[in-house]
């Protein structure tokens, strides 16, 4: 699951919703810093409501990822996408088709939820305007495996860039995954991916209820 899918059921509780996104945001802005479930859970019952909400959101993130990555639909689709990507890019053995397939499923799901629940993505971004990023970073430093001084700035870039809106188009998804590949120093892919994406997006939309079976929303 990606950040919007994690946060969507909890948008009435901004700091909890933000906590649900922390592990993904750290992987983008400070990859050596990790917010693990076990360490975060020790602070989930804190008397300080901000600490409790952010920590509980981190725990929720890991619990969501656990059921999501175990769904039959997700695992079957990753395999199917890996095979079809290898067929489409048979001259590029560095594409990392399994990784690409995993990521693209999550981005297409965010786009599906954006369309299914109109206005909620914008509400998610609006809530980030009132969340104190420095305070969130301080909470994460209570339980992270190592201190971070990059999370608050990463949250601000997330708020300003609004890149989840790009997932509405295949060109936007390709652009954002290309950025992930570049950050991870993986070989770039070419525009053939745009011919592959429409059928893949339709398949994710068709399977979305099975993929999101554990999400606290009805479809």
Could you describe the 3D structure shown?
This protein has 219 residues and is mainly alpha-helical. It is built from 11 helices and no strands. The protein is globular. The model has no long low-confidence stretch (mean pLDDT 94).
Break the fold down into its secondary structure elements and pairings.
Blueprint: H1 3-7, H2 14-29, H3 37-41, H4 49-70, H5 72-88, H6 97-116, H7 120-128, H8 133-143, H9 151-161, H10 170-183, H11 193-211
Which outline best applies?
globular
Task: Give a short account of the largest sheet.
Answer: none
Rg over alpha carbons: 17 Å
Domain count: 1
Distance between the termini: 16 Å
Strand content: under 5%
User: Helical stretch count?
Assistant: 11
| Helix and strand run | HHHHHHHHHHH
Summarize the structure.
With 219 residues, this protein is mainly alpha-helical.
Summary keywords:
219 residues; 11 helices
């Amino acid at each position: 699951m990606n950040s919007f899918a994690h946060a969507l059921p909890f948008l009435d509780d901004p700091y909890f919703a933000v906590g649900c996104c922390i592990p993904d945001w750290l992987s983008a802005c400070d990859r050596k810093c990790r917010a693990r479930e076990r360490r975060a859970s020790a602070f989930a019952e804190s008397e300080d409501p901000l600490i409790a909400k952010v920590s509980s959101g981190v725990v929720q993130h890991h619990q969501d990822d656990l059921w999501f990555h175990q769904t039959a639909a997700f695992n079957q689709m990753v395999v199917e996408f890996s095979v079809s990507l290898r067929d489409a890019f048979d001259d590029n053995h560095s594409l990392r088709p399994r990784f690409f397939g995993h990521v693209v499923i999550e981005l297409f799901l965010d786009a599906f939820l954006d369309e299914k629940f109109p206005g909620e993505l914008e509400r998610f971004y609006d809530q980030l305007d009132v969340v104190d990023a420095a305070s969130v970073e301080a909470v994460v430093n209570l339980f992270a495996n190592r201190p971070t001084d990059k999370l608050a700035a990463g949250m601000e870039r997330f708020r300003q860039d609004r890149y989840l809106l790009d997932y509405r188009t295949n060109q936007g998804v390709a652009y954002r995954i290309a950025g992930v590949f570049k950050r991870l120093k993986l070989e770039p892919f070419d525009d053939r991916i745009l011919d592959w994406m429409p059928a893949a997006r339709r398949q994710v939309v068709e399977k979305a209820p099975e993929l999101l079976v554990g999400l606290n929303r009805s479809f």
